[in-house]
Amino acid sequence: MEDTQNKNQQQKNEAPQQDMNQLLQVRREKLANLQEAGRDPFRITRYEVTHHSQEIKDHFEELKDKTVSVAGRIMQKRVMGKASFCNVQDLQGSIQAYVARDIIGEEPYADFKKYDVGDIVGIRGEVFMTKTGEISVHAAEVILLSKSLQILPEKFHGLTNTDIRYRQRYTDLIMNPDVKETFVKRSKILSAIRRYLDERGFMEVETPMLVANAGGAAARPFETHYNALDEDVKLRISLELYLKRLIVGGMEKVYEIGRVFRNEGLDTRHNPEFTLMELYQAYTDYHGMMDLTEDMFRYVAKEVCGTTLIPYAEEMIDLGKPFERLTMVDAVKKYAGVDFDGVPDTEAAKKLADEKGIHYEARHTRGDILNLFFEEYAEEHLIQPTFVMDHPVEVSPLTKRKPDKPEYVERFELFIYGREMCNAYSELNDPIDQRERFKAQEAALAAGDEEANTTDEDFLNALEIGMPPTGGIGYGIDRLVMLLTNSPAIRDVLLFPTMRSID
Predict the structure, then answer these.
(1) Contact assessment for residue 207 and residue 243, using Cβ atoms and an 8 Å cutoff
(2) Which of 152, 167, 202 is the last residue before a domain boundary?
(3) C-alpha to C-alpha distance for 408 and 398, rounded to whole angstroms
């Protein structure tokens, strides 16, 4: 009895797969018949598109009764004897086509009836409005441009499995119009950033991705081997050190938008391959970078979203108001109730950490522990745009010290919704101090800190030639896109995020 039940259940499970295999086989047979008849759609090399769907709808009055050519993917199809309807999806949306046998001809109409949802077609015809008020194209010609051999997810439910969505972004873009809109908006964000910087005299440059010394950030690099030179190299973790070399060379305003690579874990805010923008400006400091950042965020929001009030999750982020500015010491005092101005040394800092249950490592000093307090108590409260300034020197190896408080540096991070959005410095241009900082980083590396920097002798040589006072900043472009598209995870704004292999 139990064996019979198991067999029946197995047959039920196998039935949908058998049905799917049959449907897929039918599509391949349709393609084979077309090829045998000398009408292989894959031999078509081009189709002249005159208009897109939304363009036709927006300009209906001037296009009414005019002939247009559209192309796209069949998403719906309703065959009704001598006349049929189909919805064709293109870059801008979708538009209905009315296909009548008496207009396109008996044989082409018979071919059209065999087309499947997912097929890509070109349609030429006159623009009109149906009795129900839907703007449509009255087809005079329908051409199959590409045969779909797979079956799209059922339209009503869409593609909801997030793993499949990320792995098969092409299907995700077809089935979920809001996803396409996210990536259209991403492109507009990048264009707006470039426009803002170009108009202010910044020059966009490109620097190496394969480097001998991956410095400029606290991160573990990916390593590879350059066969031609028989040398080990790394993928860059930052854009900083090469851009600063350009400042030394006399390029006073430079920026780069590019991929960087960090050998770290995956979560809602981190992907090992992501887009970073860094810019450097001679003869300014971190206050100049704050002003630029605040102004640029407002500009991009207005250009892309049309407003500086940005909905994100359950909050309304106001980019129009002046961004709050407070020191890291003040942030810890405000949210943890601990005043590090009264903490004289590392021993006292570790005692405080023990009392508050803050985990630290033996190598950590007073400055490291201040930073740990900030991460534990303050970050999550920084919902509205907040510049957190004046970090401890121990966690800022490339930053100029504050003249009146040399244990701190002229650095800020911008936080929105509890997330770091950018990181900026008054850049360290003292080669002697920089060498000492590199030595401290080497010691941290030897003590087990895999994210510590190593000494970059060529960069030190550049500093010895002389770098002017400089302000610099790095922006996480993906996090900015997340904010302006109300996306909860970084994978939602990366077309092809890193995924674990199915194998």
Answers:
(1) yes
(2) 152
(3) 12
Tell me which residue range forms the domain holding 227: 175-323+384-493
What is the pairing mode between strands 324-327 and 386-389?
Answer: parallel
Q: Which of 12-21, 281-290, 393-402, 440-449 shows the lowest per-residue confidence on average (mean pLDDT)? A: 12-21
Q: Name the pLDDT band for 16 (thresholds 50, 70, 90).
A: low
CB contact at 8 A, 275 and 478: yes
Comparing CA positions, the residue from 325, 329, 367, 330 lying closest to residue 346 is 367
β-strands 309-312, 273-282 pairing: unpaired
Contact criterion met (CB below 8 Å) for 472 and 289: yes
* pLDDT at residue 102 is higher than 70: yes
The pair of structure tokens assigned to 68 is 């247009």
* Rounded Cα gap, residues 154 and 160, in angstroms: 11
Q: Please indicate, yes or no, if residue 90 is contained in any of the structural domains.
A: yes
Say which DSSP state 227 is in: T
Cβ 358 vs Cβ 366: under 8 Å? no
Residue 398 lies in a domain: yes
Is 431 exposed, middle or buried, given 0-12, 13-18 or 19+ CB atoms closer than 10 A? Answer: middle
Check whether residue 109 and residue 21 sit in a common domain.
yes
Residue 317 forms part of a structural domain: yes
Q: What is the CATH number of the domain that holds 289?
A: 3.30.930.10
Rounded CA gap, 478 and 189, in Å? 10
Cβ contacts of 141 within 8 Å, gap of 6 or more: 104, 108, 122, 123, 124, 125
For residues 298 and 480, what is the distance between their CA atoms, to the nearest angstrom? 12
Count CA within 13 A, CB hemisphere, residue 389. 17
Q: For the chain, what is the domain count?
A: 2
Whole-number pLDDT of residue 302:
98
In a domain, 354, yes or no: no
Q: Are residues 295 and 414 in the same domain?
A: yes
Question: What 3-state DSSP class applies to 276?
Answer: strand
* Per-residue burial over 147-163, b = 16 or more CB atoms within 10 Å of its CB, e = otherwise: bbeeebbeeeebbeeee
Residue 396's SS3 state is coil
CB count, 10 Å around CB of 499?
Answer: 11
